Structures are given as C-alpha cells and as structure tokens.
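User:
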Amino acid sequence: MNIKKLLPYFITIVLYFFSFPPFLTGFFSYFVLIPFFFVLEKDSFKGGFRNGYLLGLFSIGAFLYWMNWNSGATQIQATSMYLGTIIYLAVLWGLFGLLQNLVCHKFGVKGFVFAPFLWTTLEY
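Assistant: Predicted structure:
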C-alpha cells in the first residue's frame, strides 16, 4: 500500500479518536466519515466490507485503548475483552462499508445522502 491509500485511513482514525471526551474537539465527528468515503469511492464492491472492517478495527482499537487497563481483571481477561469488543464492533463498520458501497454503486454520488441513515440504523 502506498501513502495515498493509507492517508484517508489515518485521517479517519485520528478524527474518530479526537471526536470523544476528554478532548474538546467533538466537532471532528462531523468529518470522520469523509475520508472513509474517499476510500469507498475508489474501491470495488467487495472491498467495502474489508476496508470498513479494517478501518473499524483500528479506529475502535485506538478509541477503546483504555479497556486493556482494566484493574478489576487479569491482563489476559482485560486483553480478551478488549480484542473481543473491537472485533465485534468493527463488523458494524464493515457492514456500513459494504452497504454504503452497494448504495453508491447503484445511485452514484447521490448514494452518499443515505449514509447518515445507514450509519444510524446500524448503530441502533
């Protein structure tokens, strides 16, 4: 992978991480998915899930880093909970990537209008 392909991934991960407390940069949440859309736009239909899943793994992994410091569990238990959580939650990012890619291939650029509704539905 070259730097042009990795840059949108990195930007998405950084924006997602800084969108939540304790940072006072919550307005970044409005821009988190924009670099992800550039990745989806250039990829094939099947690559939507793969890209979404990988991006979800790294974004959620960076965001939930604190789960590995659980003082009420052994290190093996804490690491298992951390890995299980990010693997499970990354599936939602993968589904979003797959479905958004499907919508965009069917409707073109107009398909991005469905992104907020699709994201909210998967979160629900």
